Amino acid sequence: MIVESLSKIAVSILERDFGVLPKGYKESFTELYRKGAARPSVGTKMERLASLRNMLVHRYREVDYLTQIV
Q: Among 39, 44, 48, 40, which Cα is nearest to 70's?
């Protein structure tokens, strides 16, 4: 739920300030730091959280894979 909330904030900033509408959670964080609205280190960590969220929610991969992204 935290990732979803942070993504909504990111999308609001991107739409309002840059006219950009990202397609997903991860892309919203990527665009946020590409546009200079967040530090790259923060954007990268948020991308990882979005990936983790997607794996947990959609069960894309086995849980062992989590050690590679966290």
A: 48
